[in-house]
Design a protein that fits this description.
It contains 14 helices and no strands. The longest helix is centred in the last third of the chain and has 28 residues.
Length: 306
């Protein structure tokens, strides 16, 4: 309902870029909460099974209202089907499992380090595809990246020089790049094709492709799937909020603001994650967080300058 209110309410008076910025911010705000959920379910459910369950919830919710829209827009959707299939495989099938497999052979700081450079990949790929990026976009991107790296390194950038990289880092790098491609391929949606149809089809395709990966996880000796309140809440919250709403909002963000600017907002993810951790589990806000926030917000603001 949030995105419907935004689209039909006060957002009607805003420019497309401002709307996209709001959608992107709301999207990463929801995703920031998913890190807290991930901590809650440790030892209760295996990660790939949680991924499949959350997207299944999203599909079931979409089934309640999406089918008439999909049927009406099917002729247009067919012309955009290759992009939708790629988007579904990236967002549903690959994104979370790649993070899981990467975490088996690398450290948390390496994962965070590579994740925060995703917006840079968006800008670089856009530039290679002939979409000229302004000088302010490059400057803002670099400033925001420094702020993110400063936070990941806990205020000691020299700490990054001593990092050792493993196979998991390559997997995380692939994850960052494919998310950048996702943000680009869905930036030009054909007229007459709604996000309802796009999300339904990409969720359906992604879940089908996810079946063999989940099957592999079930066969593992350390497979866990407990039925308790924490697991049920986590599946429902991540399915409705983190999968359905957040990806819907992100899709709108890249349509309205473009992938480069939406990617700049993505830099705010570490800061929002820190705020969520402070509010709900009492992790302290330190001067490092404040300095990082100033750099990230400053970089985002600078990139928006004409």
């Amino acid at each position: 309902m949030i995105f419907l209110l935004l689209r039909r309410g006060f957002c009607m008076r805003l420019t497309a870029k401002m709307k996209g910025s709001i959608f992107a911010f709301l999207s990463i705000a929801i995703w920031s909460g998913s890190f807290l959920i991930a901590r809650l379910v440790v030892g209760n459910i295996s990660p790939l099974s949680l991924t499949a369950a959350r997207w299944l919830v999203s599909l079931l919710v979409l089934l309640l209202f999406a089918l008439p829209t999909v049927k009406r827009e099917w002729s247009v959707a067919q012309t955009f089907l290759p992009q939708i299939i790629i988007a579904g495989i990236i967002s549903v099938t690959l994104y979370a499992p790649l993070v899981y497999f990467a975490a088996q052979t690398t450290s948390a700081i390496n994962l965070s380090l590579i994740a925060v450079i995703t917006p840079v990949f968006i800008v670089i790929i856009c530039a290679f595809m002939g979409k000229k990026q302004s000088t302010n976009t490059w400057i803002g991107s670099i400033v925001a990246l420094i702020g993110s790296l400063y936070l990941v390194a806990n205020g000691n950038l020299s700490r990054l020089l001593g990092l050792k990289f493993a196979v998991g880092d390559l997997l995380m790098l692939v994850d960052a790049i494919i998310f950048a491609f996702y943000s680009i391929i869905l930036s030009k949606v054909p007229k007459g094709l709604s996000q309802t149809t796009i999300l339904f089809l990409m969720t359906l395709v992604g879940l089908i492709c996810l079946i063999p990966i989940v099957g592999w996880e079930i066969m593992q000796p350390n497979f866990i799937f407990k039925i308790n309140g924490i697991v049920i809440f986590s599946i429902l919250f991540t399915g409705i909020a983190c999968s359905l709403m957040a990806w819907w909002l992100w899709n709108l963000a890249i349509v309205y603001a473009g992938p480069s600017h939406a990617g700049m907002i993505y830099y705010g993810m570490p800061i929002l994650s820190s705020i969520v951790a402070f509010l709900f589990i009492g992790e302290p806000i330190t001067p490092v967080h404040i300095i990082s926030a100033l750099l990230i917000i400053g970089g985002i603001a600078w990139s928006a300058k004409k």
